[in-house]
Design goal:
It is globular and about 60 Å long. Helix content is 31%, strand content 22%. The protein has 2 domains: 160 residues, Aminopeptidase; 84 residues, Glutaredoxin. The longest helix is centred in the N-terminal third of the chain and has 20 residues.
């Protein structure tokens, strides 16, 4: 029997299929399920307000991969937002049996064609360009290499890549650097969002590590899509401890805890 691949746009009836692609191994994890709940709610809001913001790939009738995207102008966490720009949040295929079959390319090229034909969540508006922050998922092909192979070009803004559709790249104005706020002293402020279901469980892990270093510190966890003004005034930084932005990724556990320890001990 030949292997069958099909691509579907996100709709209300297949939200759980999109969730399954990334969360199949964590269906019994209660903390992860809180992240799933936030993601599901966000997807429903996007469907209502924008239309489909994802494509799902099925391999032999099983959901195996996805691409998630949305109009930059709906992201209220940003101080500056460009119109008619599609942000690709992620593209992910964690299933070895469905890798090396061109599924990721089909998902991306499908979105590109939709953008050219004005059939995306931008409505009937032209899409100036696609934008993505390429990162490594640990799967078959590193995303920077994948997007480059699909004609995306580097920008001057970190690891952002773009593909012009019906316009040219427009640099984002600088938001500047975080300046210590008096209200941020003697506490840890952890930001998370609903766009990825891993956002909330990652935030809880960060909380756990911070409390290991300083058990008595006050923790404030903020959903940046619900309170975007809190993120904007802190320059969209993901973790502030005692009015210091933390640089180290939390999965570098010992280095991360050392930086937390240093932040807690600093005086003003």
């Amino acid at each position: 029997m030949p292997e069958k691949i099909r691509i579907e746009n996100l709709q209300g009836s297949n939200i759980d299929d999109l969730i399954y692609v990334c969360s199949a191994k964590r269906l019994d994890d209660t903390i992860h399920q809180q992240g799933v709940k936030l993601k599901r709610q966000w997807l429903r809001e996007m469907l209502k307000n924008c239309g489909s913001v994802a494509k799902i790939a099925y391999f032999n009738d099983r959901p195996v991969a996805q691409i998630l995207f949305f109009p930059e102008e709906v992201d209220a966490t940003k101080a500056f937002r460009r119109e008619n720009v599609l942000v690709i949040q992620c593209i992910y295929n964690p299933n070895p049996e469905a890798q090396k079959l061109g599924i990721g390319t089909r998902l991306l090229q499908g979105l590109i064609q939709d953008a050219k034909n004005r059939k995306t969540c931008l409505g009937n508006k032209r899409c100036k360009f696609l934008l993505t922050k390429a990162f490594n998922t640990g799967e078959f092909l590193p995303l920077p290499e994948f997007f480059t192979k699909n004609s995306f070009t580097s920008t001057s803004e970190g690891n952002l890549l773009y593909l012009p559709i019906d316009g040219q790249y427009e640099p984002m104005p600088s938001v500047g650097n975080y300046e210590p706020l008096a209200e941020d002293r003697d506490k840890a402020i952890i930001f998370y969002g609903p766009v990825c279901q891993f956002g909330y469980p990652f935030a809880k892990k960060i909380e756990e590590l911070v409390l290991e270093v300083e058990p008595n510190i006050k923790i404030e966890m903020i959903n940046d899509w619900e309170k975007p003004e809190e993120s904007i005034k802190r320059k969209n930084w993901w973790l502030i401890v005692n009015a210091k932005p933390i640089q180290t990724f939390f999965m570098e556990t010992e280095k991360f805890k050392a930086e937390i320890r240093q932040a807690v001990s600093q005086n003003y």
